[in-house]
Amino acid sequence: MGLMNEYISKRWKVKQFEDELIRLIKAYNKIRDSYLFVYVSAFEKPIPERILLHEDYYTIHDLLTNKDDQDKLDFFLETPGGMGEVAEEIVRFIHDEFATVSFVISGQAKSAGTIMALSGDEIFMTSTGSLGPIDAQIRIGRSTNSSYDYIEWVEAKQEQAKKTGQLNPFDATMIAQITPGELNGVINTHGYAQDLVIDWLVKYKFKNWNFTETKRNPVTENMKQKRAKEIAKELTNRTRWRTHGRSIKIDDLLGLGLIINRVEDNPKLADIVLRIHAVCRFIFNMSNSFKIFATADDKIFRQAIAMTGPLPGQQRIKMLQDIEVVEINVKCQNCGQEHKLYAKLKKDEDIDKKMKSKGRMPFPSGNKIACKCGKELDLTTTRNEAQKKIGKQFVF
User: Domains in the chain, ordered, with CATH?
Assistant: First the structure.
């Protein structure tokens, strides 16, 4: 029986999968004698915030600060990518905090996620795991494009202009859409990803590479720099990978000259890693969570609650005419129950009486309510969006 079918047959609720995740993390720590941190984003959910954001850095910093009894961190990573600057901040922090940092990839760690993984002292991957090209994605006009593609196109047009002395009207119009400053920004963005990879490969991944594999010759810093530049160049080579979403597997990485540890070489460890991957997928599929931050000691599930407009019917906010109170209907995406709440915008006991007579409950000051199905609904986003919309703070 496969892992997915095994878990399906258990008929667990979300809370049981959350408990299973913590159990698996503790089991992993015993086998590896390390401290596992799980950071996973839901690829399938069309939520902009699923990418790597500064808010994630602050959460990671909070959960991993002052782990004085731990010197070895294993970072279980799955992300579609995001801001390279955030990846840089996270990497610098975890390497400052821990003596050894390894990355564990069982799903997809793309773009900025690949950059992070390449900073590891070691990289552990399952056969299901994949990294991706690191060519930066930039917005030009109305579309998002690969910086590599754009630079290559501009250079081709420059060469054409040198040879013929002119550009055809279409190309001239296209080039006029971007300013010299924007073009420099594209070039710098493209180089930024390469610089990070080169720096981190030499500093972390290659730090114990002292002798060549075949002839056992001493490895110099120049040799490390050269290998790192070759790898960075290939990972930003759009011509080789064709699409930004391309999955780069273990054998591809080995072919680039990277040492990758195959998780399946340790069956017990592989079972735990694959179970963690499966359990996270169940949590995403059964709830409105779209990001998971978890260790053996703490867990945070970032959740999305739809507001009026993009997903009508999931949640509705109604302001009374005097704008003294906000009526909020929240639908549990796990069982479908609708929770009727209200939030006061001024202190008035008459409002409480009126709302309770309508069968409404006061909005929780802690931003969380428990549904009858056992799921805890985090209403932080709801509160923030409502307060922003009306320009007033809730009163409790």
Answer: 3-132+247-303 (3.90.226), 147-184 (no CATH), 315-390 (no CATH)
